[in-house]
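task queued by scheduler; priority normal; single chain, no ligands, no partner chains; default sampling; output format set to C-alpha cells
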Amino acid sequence: MLAGKRILLIVTGGIAAYKSLDLVRRLQDRGASVRCLLTEAACEFVTPLSFAALSGEKVFTDLFSLTDESEMGHIRLSREADLVVVAPATADIMAKMANGLADDLASTALLATDKRVLLAPAMNAEMWAKPATERNVERLRKDGVLMVGPGAGELACGEVGPGRMAEPLEIVTAIENVFAAAKKPLAGKRALVTAGPTHEAIDPVRFIANRSSGKQGYAVAAALAELGASVTLISGPTAIAPPVGVSLVKVETARDMLAACEKALPADIGVFVAAVADWRVDVAAQGKIKKRSGKPPGLALVENPDILATISARKVERPALVVGFAAETDDVLRHAKAKLKKKGCDWIVANDVSHRGGAMGGDFNTVHIVTGRGVETWKRLPKSEVAARLARRIADRLGRR
C-alpha cells in the first residue's frame, strides 16, 4: 500500500515526539520514503540527528535557512509529498492550522500544501476538552483535515483521560486508509446510517421495542466505509460490535435518534435502516408499575417523530441521496411505493419481515429497491451482500450526479 509513497512527517513539541521515531521506521518498513520537519519545540524533546539517521533524509527545522530555501523551499517541501502527517499534533499547531497562521516552517508548509493532511493529536486532557480546542478540531474537520486519535489513558503529566497520541501502528493504518480511500468511489463523502431498534420507556424497567437486531444497518455502515465514505452510525440498543472505521453514536429512543441524525448533518448520503418505534408512552412512569390483578395499566400512546420524513423534507443540509427502509409483513411492494411518496426520500429498500422470511433478527434478507424509475428485486442474500450491493449502487448514483 505504501510502496513508493512520499510522506512529509511534521513533528511538533510534545513528549509523544519520541514515538515519531518509531513511526518513521514503520513507514519505511512498508516501502514509504519519509522526510521529517521538526518545530523548534520538537527539538527540545528529540533531535534532528535521530530523524536524519532513521529516515536517511535531511531534516528541516528553520523557515529562514537560506540553504534550505534555495534548495527546497517550504512550498516544494509541502507539495512534493503524497501526504502530510503531523505527529504529534499539539494544541498550538492545530490552532495555527484552524486560523491560517504561518509563523514557522511547520505552519507555513501546512498552509502551503495541496495534499491531504493527517493529524495525530497529543495533549493534556484538559487542553483537549477546552472549547477552543473543540472549535479548532471542528473547523479542521470541515476543512478536510483527517485525524487519528487521540486515545485515552495515563498521560505524561500523570493525569488520566483523552489526549494520548495514537500508537505508531495505528497511525500507519490510518495512513494506509488514506491512500486506499483515494482509490474508492465514496472517498470524501460523508454518510449517515441508522440501525437497530429504539426503546421507548414505559417505566424504569419496561419499554416498547421490536425484534430488530441492527445487523442490516451495521452491514450497510461497514459497506459504505469500505468504499471510502466517512460514516456516522447512529444505533439503537444492539449487541453488535461497531464496524471498523465507523463513528458510532448510541441512542435509546426515537427522539434521541432524530436529534443525533440532525447533529450528524451535513452528509452526502443518508441510509435510514433503523426500525424506529412508531409510538411511545405519553408520560413514562417514574417508578415500576405494579401488577394489579385484573386491572392492566392503561397506556396513553403518542406518535414518535418520523425521522426519515423529517430528514427528507429538510431545505438545508438534506443529504444528496436519502434511502429509507420499509419493513413489511404483507403487500410489501404496495406499502413500499406508498412510503416512497409519503416520506419524500429518493429510494426505499423494502423487505418482508414476517416470520416466514426470517429477516428481522436473521442473517439473510430479500429486498426490493423501489425508486421513482421502478422496482428491482434482489433474491435472498446474506445481509452483508445486500449491504455491499446497496453501497455500490449508492456510489454509482453519486458518481452519475
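post-processing summary
- The chain has a mean pLDDT of 89.
- The longest strand covers residues 374-382.
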